Amino acid sequence: MKRRLTILNLKKFDWESLLNKIEKHLPLFLICIFIFIQSDKTARVVSYDGNTNWFIHKLAHFVLFSLVFLFANRSFGDKRKALVFTILYGISDEIHQSFVPTRTASLTDVLIDSSAGVSMYILISKYKKYLPISIIKFFNI
Q: Which of 79, 81, 94, 112 is most open to solvent, judged by the fewest CB atoms within 10 Å of its CB?
């Protein structure tokens, strides 16, 4: 018995599995692309008050990298892997910024990015029982 080989056998291809994988990993991919694009731009002045401008930029780092942790947890299904990914992506973001002419790498930003991941790790570990089921399922907590 000879089996016919085709380049693309659509009947046997598991489209549902592919769509599930895309749905699982797409949010992490998109937020990482968003951060990469923003890191490649000239830093914006949010306020002419230096302290306010500094605070808003650091808050943005914390919020974005909290989301990186949550989406990484959704992708990997493991809080430790999500934390390692968040820290490494924070480091790579600062390395990337060091090559952008109008930007500089900052150890403070790496620490803020890492603390966002650690904070989410602790919050999820301690308060998971208080989270709505929809959040638990969406972020694979």
A: 81
